[in-house]
Amino acid sequence: MTSITDPDGAIMPAMPPFRSEGNGPWVITRHADASLILRSPAFRMASPLQRVERIAARARRDYSDLLALMEQTLLFQDGPSHLANRQSVRRIVQQSMARWPASAILAEARRIAASVPSGGAIDAVVHLADPLPSLILASMLSLPVDQAMALRADATMVTRAWSHACSLRDYDACQDAARRLRRELRSSLQRDSVETGDASFDLIAFLLVAGADSIAGTISAALDLLARNPAWQARLQSEPKLMPGFIRETLRLAGPLRRLNRRVAQAAVDIGGVSIAPGDLVLLRIDSAHRDAEAFAYPDQIDPGRKNAPLLAFGGGAHMCQGPLLGAMEAEMMVTAIIDRFQIRPAAARGALLDHEDWRVFAHLPLILTPVAAEQ
Ligand code: HEM
Fold first, then answer.
1. 319 lines ligand 1 (CB under 6 A)
2. Are strands 281-284 and 26-28 parallel, antiparallel or unpaired?
3. Between the CA of residue 179 and those of 151, 154, 163, 169, 184, what are the distances in Å?
């Protein structure tokens, strides 16, 4: 069996919806089926809240901080309060974009690239993929960068509780992380009298997951693709205008989310020739949908020039991502700053992914960087 930490793990081909176990979730791999489900009112997001409440009651555990964070996680909300909370988060993201125009992001990306040691193998996650999203997120939340990094780690831990595969010991660790995260975020924002508008601290906490791991995952995936495709490095160095298309192709072929959060059917509905009953769960495999030849011609090839490529990397419908422009811009600027300065090669050791069933985010990515001037 392929380990979920293997960056080269096989991607399931696009096929009609199927269930691998009797009443397990329907697995959706075709682009058309996934797009339909994302936009259909017959489906809503499946929330882990009730499962965690049941486990807390059965195991007599205090998971109050974990539950409070889940309740305020935008992904698990719906109706008018979800819409109002989306507005609050949108304002925070827009303020950040006004503070960080492309030129300022590129200047910061160049500073980060200039501080990287070159010559031997470096971990591209630590030196190149993590710093820019952490810095911009810290600025968005008015936190010191070190604190934002520590809180990011706790927020990532909390997302483990979203998975069915979580053990009781994992839930305990998630609750500890949730307690720390809530306490420290609140005290830091209150101490510095940070203006959060009408957004609660718990609502803001979700940005620590949504607004950084996804971008760091995109940057490291782009660097991994480039290290393995030297011809593309040369192409991007000579034609920088291809960079936005290259990042879109990175999101399609190697994006940070392999699967979206599960949805649950609210009514009987036919999808791709199968009947889905109320209460059935669906699992949207966007890694497969992104290679569906019905949606993308020659789907395994990198082609930054694709016109109107129907990407699902930012989801769609009611829970569509709130930071696609910021996320793509950070990735474009960081990768531009790196390839302007370095030639990238894979190191002998292959990188490994974070151990998370839905994500494709590098935990380590050893690469060798050689200054461009030294190559000539
Ligand atoms: C390349 C970077 C990013 C990627 C690939 C990405 C991807 C996604 C995806 C796929 C979803 C929907 C998940 C689902 O339907 O199951 C989502 C939701 C969300 N994203 Fe992003 N995201 C990125 C960057 C950002 C940034 C920079 C922010 C904000 C700072 C952000 C904030 C959010 C929020 C708040 C939601 C939840 C929306 C809701 O439930 O209403 N994301 N993102």
1. yes
2. parallel
3. 11, 9, 19, 16, 9
Tell me if 112 sits within 8 A of 104, measured CB to CB: no
Q: Classify residue 260: in a domain, yes or no.
A: yes
Q: Which atom of ligand 1 is nearest to the CA of 82?
A: 41
Question: What are the backbone angles phi and psi of residue 114, rounded to the nearest 5°?
Answer: -70, -20
* CATH, residue 30: 1.10.630.10
Residue 96, ligand 1, Cβ within 6 A: no
* pLDDT tens, residue by residue, 205-216: 999 989 999 999
Total structural domains in the chain? 1
Atom of ligand 1 nearest to the CA of 316: 15
Write out residues in the chain with pLDDT < 70, as ranges: 1-4, 193-194, 196-199, 374-376
Distance CA 232, CA 236 (A): 6
Task: List the one residue out of 59, 64, 155, 109 whose CA is nearest residue 333.
Answer: 109
Q: Which ligand 1 atom lies nearest to the CA of residue 331?
A: 1
Alpha-carbon gap, residue 283 to 179, rounded angstroms: 30
User: CA-CA distance, 328 to 344, in Å (whole number)?
Assistant: 21
Domain residues for the domain of 154 are 18-375
DSSP state of 322: S
Q: How far, in Å, is the centroid of ligand 1 from the Cα of 76?
A: 13
Name the residue at shortest CA distance from atom 20 of ligand 1.
321
DSSP string, 41-59: TTEEEPPSHHHHHHHHHHT
Domain membership flag for residue 12: no
pLDDT in tens, 236-294: 999 999 999 999 999 999 999 999 999 999 999 999 999 999 999 999 999 999 999 99
C-alpha distances (whole Å) from 269 to each of 45, 152, 285 are 16, 38, 19
Contact, 176 vs 160, CB < 8 A? no
Minimal-distance CA residue to ligand 1 atom 17: 321
Smallest CA-to-CA distance from 259 within 360, 340, 185, 118 is with 360
Residue 139 belongs to some domain of the structure = yes
Residues, the chain: 376
Within-domain flag for 8: no
